[in-house]
Amino acid sequence: MKRLLIILHDLSAGGAEKMMARLAGALVEAGNDVTLLMLTGGGVNVALLDPRVKQVALNSPRSASAVPALARFLRHNRFDAQLAALTHVNVVAIAAAALSGTLTRLHVSERNAFSRDKHVNPSLRVRLAYWLAPLLYRLIPNPVICVSRGVARDLVETTIARDRDVTIADNPVLDNDFLQRTPGRPTHPWLLDKRTPVIVAVGRLAAQKGFDTLIEALARLQDRRVRLLIFGEGGLRTELLEQAARLDVAGRVELPGYTPDPMAQIAAADCFVLSSRFEGSPNALVEALSTGTPVVSTRCPYGPQEILEDGAVAPLVPVDDAEALAQAISIEMAQPRMRHYPSRISAAARYMSGRAVQTYLVALLGEQRS
Predict the structure, then answer these.
(1) What pLDDT is stored for residue 366 in this prediction?
(2) Per-residue confidence (pLDDT) for residue 370, from 0 to 100
(3) Cα(344)–Cα(206) distance, rounded to whole angstroms?
């Protein structure tokens, strides 16, 4: 049994946080002693943690100020491997590991397209972390774990990181028995009482997710009965609702907020759409495939091309092209629902916890670089 540590800022409602909670459980299931440490603490995804995962919260007011406390924790609690996630947390973890003498055990991970994600948060501290990270990635003894080939390639092509500075591990998105599980009951009235076709999307209400393009695509559909549900929270709620009103589709668009069971909503829908401008490895897309629901995605960097096998599994359309998105949605919804069901399930199966956790164990416990 190996002692493993996962380091996060908290377990809020983001995709990376959700995957780290799932990874912690999968590592426990694989026979390891796992601790999940939060620099700040709390968040809705705490509910996803396997009860066998030990929890530690440093309760720091900010991630950056947690370095001394994290260094003390690492010095007094020796782990076989330490894994940090998200760029600003990676920088904190590298500093703490260097101070505690545990740098050889530390692994950091990138969950998104680095060249795009660094422009999202205007905070000076976050921007400084993105400036420092590539330099640190060249100096640390273990390669950066990336969630897709695209994320790894982006890091190498747009920073000073080298090919030998990166490796890849899959997200543990799905339970091993996902095929045997019956989808949960949807919560929204449009899905409970299906009177018209419904499109579902899931994600933060942020520019990255391209929901403005999706609403415009809805307005271009010839079938004026089609409705759109976007599950998620974020700062663009008001702007998206105002856009829907301008396009005269306000009565066909709702933003119900965060859902703890997105797969239940997607399974009851007629189509799932990923309209993102960039991603790392979109977990919602994998979850959608696992339900068998028809899927349409943008060909955004990075992730959808790998997951959808360059369009062989489901349509890929250009980013920010509302007309192409509308056409792809219309075609998918006009086809028999089960037409490409086997290929969707097969593509999703790559991201079962049992398979994905092995890619992490190789990355965490394999031979270190010389």
Answers:
(1) 85
(2) 37
(3) 27
The pLDDT value given to residue 125: 87
Rounded CA separation 82/19 (Å)? 16
CA distances from 249 to 215, 234, 298 (A): 8, 20, 22
Torsion of the alpha carbons at 111, 117, 121 and 126, rounded to the nearest 10: 60
Q: Give residue 309's region: left, alpha or beta (phi > 0; psi -120 to 50).
A: left
DSSP per residue over 81-144, as a string?
A: EEEEESHHHHHHHHHHHHHHT-GGGEEEEE-S-HHHHTTT---HHHHHHHHHHHHHHHHSSSPE
What does the pLDDT read at residue 20? 96
Domains for the chain: give ranges and CATH numbers: 3-172+352-365 (3.40.50.2000), 178-349 (3.40.50.2000)
**CA–CA dist 74, 368 (Å, integer):** 19
pLDDT at residue number 121: 84
Number of H helices, E strands in the chain: 15, 13
What residues form DSSP beta bridges with 168? Answer: 146
User: Which regions of the chain are under pLDDT 70?
Assistant: 367-370
Residue 359: what pLDDT?
95
Give, as one character, the DSSP assignment of residue 182: P
Burial 103-115 (b: 16+ CB within 10 A, else e): bebbbbbbbbbbb
